Amino acid sequence: DISKKQELTSLIERNILFDGVTIGSSQKQVKLENIDINNSFVNSRFTNVSFQGSKFTKGASFTGATFENVDFTNTELDGITFQSLIPALRSGTISLKGAKVVGSMSSYAFDLSDISLQGIDLSGVTSMAGVNLKNTDFRGAILPHDEMALRESYNLTSATFDSDMSDLQKKNQKYMMDLI
User: Fold this and answer.
1) What is the mean pLDDT of each run of 10 residues along the chain (180 residues)?
2) Does the predicted TM-score (pTM) go above 0.85?
3) Is the separation of the CB atoms in 19 and 44 below 8 Å?
4) How many whole angstroms separate alpha carbon 25 and alpha carbon 32?
5) CA of 67: how far to CAs of 83, 124, 164, in Å?
6) DSSP-derived pairing of the beta strands 55-56 and 66-71
């Protein structure tokens, strides 16, 4: 129903906290596409929802949310929003293939160990200081433009990349040893 979608879009644009709501159904896809989303959807359930082209900023959060058939293709996520999606990434209920993460990850103590970030765009990430990358899968990912951003992480040597990243991994080890 177009009027319900317009009402939901209007609420989203007003930066309202959604707690424990259900958005979408298995019968019909809900398209919340190409909009700026600054809301938090804590403990909410998303089923058959497309966020294609939307931009999540100013600390939008999905803490405690559950996902089924949710599309984040061509979305832009800030660090806080990305962090809130880590449990869903870890469980495999979502993929951020085609999504772009921007800003710093360093102030959130991210643990990206054993997570697939295949096809994600990290070119807008400015810092990954202190981010755990043990066994993180970066195949098909666009890495940060600033090589230093990735070097500031740890456990980089066990991460998986498309190409030979041994030079970057060696530089990272030397960088860490120089700090000691």
Assistant:
1) 63 62 86 86 91 88 93 94 93 94 82 93 91 92 85 84 60 50
2) no
3) yes
4) 14
5) 15, 25, 34
6) unpaired
Token readout for 139 is: 């195949």
Maximum Cα interatomic distance, the chain, rounded to a whole number of Å: 60
Token reading at 70: 């949710």
The whole-number pLDDT of residue 19 equals 74
**Per-residue tokens: 68:** 């089924």
- Output the 3-class SS for 39-69: CEEECCEEEEEECCCCEECCCCECCCCEEEE
Per-residue model confidence as pLDDT tens digits over 121-152? 999 999 888 899 999 999 999 999 887 888 88
SS3 label, residue 163 = coil
Tokens of 5: 């979608």
Helix or strand run (H / E) with residue 73: none
